Amino acid sequence: LSTVDSAFLLAGALTAGIYFDADTADEHEIRTLADALYRRADWPWAQDGGATVTHGWTPESGFLKYRWEGYDEALLLYTLGLGSPTHPLPESSYAAWTSTYRWEQCYGQEYLYAGPLFTHQLSHVWIDFRGIQDAFMRGKGIDYFENSRRATYAQQQYAIDNPLKFAGYGRHYWGLTASDGPGPDTIKVNGIERQFFDYVGRGVPYGPDDGTIAPWAVVASLPFAPEIVLPTMAHLIRQVELTESDPYGFKATFNQTHPAISGNPFGWVSRWHYGLNKGPIILMIENYRTGLLWQLMRNCPYIASGLRRAGFTGGWL
Hints:
alpha+beta
């Protein structure tokens, strides 16, 4: 049982409960089930007696040893946990989590650090963080939306600088995140020994980095920095042809440095598709176009309550 994947599930259920608002038996049932699912979640149980929330639990061995530490997609998890009317997290748990934050300066940007790009995106699928701040962000004078914009720019600049000299990296060729890859493998490429990974949390600037780019992570940053995301999307579609003959849109990942034999001249291309990638693509495009998900969840009392208990003020709150 993954605590953060449970959070994604519950956020989706609550969204559906708000969206289907007609006075019909079917849509009333959707609202009732969504509310019941959310109210059943026992968030303090997931703390397992600690200050922060654990990553999960298995029936074979109990709670995982890992806890949510450092800035990441747990922002959504804590918001939902704090907003529960039945089994809420204590406010101290949020303070314990944010105490593990790392504020850094990387590639011309000062921001709350998290390496993989998805960590700056997934909570924002459902929550509009523009103009609202918790104690940490009030101290920095920005909000989490601006923080994600800066993280997106840091990703692009890292690719432009390309410190590890991977093929293709540049202004329109970036996007390091948790993703599939061509490894595990260690081979010499043009005289350089390269280590390639399979599915890992690639990130900027500390890695791991093996030359693998995830187009979905670029698209999911569309609301934050459209001025650099849209040209990159256009490049990947027209030049790299990552959507050709593919009913699901972008390929999951590709790696131009790995000398794979494939039908694509841009090297190794993942043969898999991941729902966890496709969901943010669709929803963040819609947030960029109309703000639909953000508007729906502004009307969710549990989200508003969770944000306020976390210390958020200002803006639409």
